Amino acid sequence: MKLLETLRAYQRRDPAARSALEVLLLYPGVHALLYYRLAHWLHCRRLCFLARLVSQWARVWTGVEIHPGASIGRRLVIDHGAGIVIGETTVIGDDVLLYQGVTLGGTGKDTGKRHPTLGNGVLVGAGARVLGPLTVGDNARIAAGAVVLRDVPAGATAVGVPAQVVRLNGEKVPRPVDELDHTGISSPTAQRLEDLAARLTALEQKWEQSKANISSKGE
Hints:
Elements: H1 2-13, H2 20-26, H3 28-44, H4 48-62, E1 64-66, E2 71-72, E3 77-78, E4 84-86, E5 91-92, E6 97-98, E7 103-105, E8 117-118, E9 123-124, E10 129-131, E11 135-136, E12 141-142, E13 147-148, E14 156-159, E15 164-168, H5 188-218
Parallel strand pairs: 1-4, 2-5, 3-6, 4-7, 5-8, 6-9, 7-10, 8-11, 9-12, 10-13, 12-14
Antiparallel strand pairs: 14-15
Helix pairs in contact: 1-2, 3-4
């Protein structure tokens, strides 16, 4: 049963989930998925107005906006759920985990397939934006707050604005990253700023040394 396996997925991936009954009755992510399944069923039968009506009601009730045209696989876990937006042509594989504030949206420049495709086992951290008809490969990790504008390979970890891959197929990163730690990842942008600050400090020291040498020669 799809519902039962979804409830078990929540229990497995959310340490706060105490029972399947609690997840079913109290988790807005589960409610959003139930509404989505109905809306998607209506959408596939070209009852588009009714489908959007259901999806908009779900948005008001759960804080999660899923377009009825999106394609969602099995055992999707939506953690907290507030502020999540999933666009019309989005494709989500099995065993995906989305945290609050995630947007799977378009750039406004594309037609046809306008939204991202997420492979199996993908994790998208809180507040991340995945935009455009790009592909995020199986078991990839998108860090919290990242803005993804191009494809992310399978097994990769992407961070930053715009997102860059900092881990691929087991390569080491400065700090270990596990499934639920989507904040303990170094940012390449921050590293560049630190490098620039270090260079500026070195230049200032050289300038001060040069002024001191000129003064000593003048005396």
